[in-house]
């Protein structure tokens, strides 16, 4: 058994390791709508491998898209992987494609069963994913959540946005659309980002880079036949970022753990790479990053991990906070690894990270910063009042 079945965990690894029998858990999860309040502040998004690939690993080709809406469903990990790999084989062989289709239709594959076909299960494209981010309110917004009309027209999946008059953020798409959960930086994004960093330097803007993959997982150079665009790995990418002192931070995830790394520039200074744990694995935390001018020629980045609002231990209720609490309990008892490792060390969580200022920040007055904070706080209070 490769998935936890709350009503009957016995007969597989989850039951063997003592995961509880919770007969009503799934019923409680769908018994009532989840009152999602949304984020009270503007939020932005970048592509992750689970937005673009089956199981975060396999290309969403035509056979897999047909499978999504068709009358056959795989219910084991082995069958799902076989279907994905069968799709790859069918791309290069008409015979393999025919045998693959007949085997599926005739029910000859183990781990595959008949289900009602449903066109509403269609897998979304990258354009669909970006377009959905425009179905949102302008407050707290922003509309597009990083993506712009240019992204919809061009198909480009990377963007930039000004978080304040002094901070510019760049959202990258580091996913490899061919295969594999890890990523790389395509040459076109690399060139675009470097040109933008030149501009940010000339405009005295602090730069923060956002991506899904981190420097430990930026080495996936898988390519289709005939694909010739260079895919850039972590070493070359980090070296480029260190050439621009305005880069102060690179925020990312993917590895489901908290980790902070210092990337030093050869001439002094550098930037901080801040990797945050995921929402599904323990400790199910998020992280805030605050940029502070110390008025002494240095900057501080303050990082603080934040728990979700559910109680530490599950209660008996079936509301969304009780379900969230149960989720954290199950994550903390993960038998496949040591959950505490994903917290990172104390130096990967609540920290003050120092940097030399890349340009004179004295023109940014305390009054201007207070005005920005007041505007942000007013927006949050208005959003909370509208939900009350």
Gyration radius from CA atoms, angstroms: 23 Å
Work out the helicity level.
25-40%
Which structural category fits the helices and strands? alpha/beta
User: Helix tally?
Assistant: 12
Task: Give the helices and strands as they follow along the chain.
Answer: HHHHEHHEHHEEEHEEHEEEEEHEH
Looking at the structure, the CATH topology of the largest domain is Transcription Regulator spoIIAA
Q: Between the first and last Cα atoms, what is the distance in angstroms?
A: 44 Å
Low-confidence stretches: none
CATH architecture of the largest domain, by name, is 2-Layer Sandwich
Percentage of β-strand residues: 15-25%
Quote the average pLDDT.
89
Q: How many domains make up the coordinates?
A: 3
What is the CATH H-level superfamily of the largest domain?
GpdQ, beta-strand dimerisation domain
Q: Which sequence of strands runs across the widest sheet? A: 3-4-6-8-10-9
């Amino acid at each position: 058994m490769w998935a936890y079945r709350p009503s009957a965990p016995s007969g597989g690894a989850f039951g063997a390791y003592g995961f509880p029998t919770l007969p009503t858990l799934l019923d409680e999860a769908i018994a009532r709508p989840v009152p999602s309040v949304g984020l009270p502040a503007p939020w932005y998004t970048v592509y992750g491998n689970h937005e673009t690939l089956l199981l975060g690993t396999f290309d969403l080709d035509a056979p897999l898209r047909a499978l999504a809406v068709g009358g056959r469903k795989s219910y084991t990990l082995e069958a799902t992987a076989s279907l994905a790999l069968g799709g790859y084989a069918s791309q290069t062989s008409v015979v393999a494609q025919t045998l693959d289709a007949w085997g599926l239709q005739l029910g000859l594959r183990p781990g595959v069963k008949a289900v009602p076909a449903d066109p509403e299960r269609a897998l979304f494209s990258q354009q669909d994913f970006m377009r959905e981010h425009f179905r949102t309110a302008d407050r707290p917004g922003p509309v597009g959540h990083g993506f712009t009309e240019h992204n919809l027209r061009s198909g480009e999946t990377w963007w930039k946005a000004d978080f304040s008059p002094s901070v510019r953020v760049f959202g990258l798409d580091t996913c490899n659309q061919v295969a594999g959960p890890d990523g790389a930086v395509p040459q076109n994004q690399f060139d675009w980002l470097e040109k933008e960093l030149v501009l940010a330097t000339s405009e005295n803007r602090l730069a923060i880079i956002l991506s899904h993959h981190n420097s430990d997982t930026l080495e996936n150079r898988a390519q289709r036949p005939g694909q010739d665009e260079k895919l850039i790995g972590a070493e070359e990418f980090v070296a480029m970022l260190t050439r621009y002192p305005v880069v102060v931070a690179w925020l990312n995830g993917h590895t489901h753990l908290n980790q902070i790394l210092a990337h030093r520039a050869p001439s002094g200074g550098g930037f901080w790479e801040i990797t945050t744990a995921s929402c599904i694995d323990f400790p199910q935390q998020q992280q805030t990053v605050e940029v502070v001018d110390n008025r002494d020629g240095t900057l501080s980045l303050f990082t603080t991990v934040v728990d979700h609002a559910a109680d530490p231990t599950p209660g008996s209720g079936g509301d969304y906070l009780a379900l969230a609490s149960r989720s954290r309990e199950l994550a903390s008892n993960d038998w496949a690894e040591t959950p505490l490792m994903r917290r990172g060390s104390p130096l990967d969580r609540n920290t003050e990270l120092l940097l030399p200022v890349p340009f004179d920040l004295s023109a940014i007055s305390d009054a201007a910063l207070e005005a920005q904070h007041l505007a942000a706080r007013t927006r949050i209070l208005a959003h909370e009042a509208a939900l009350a």
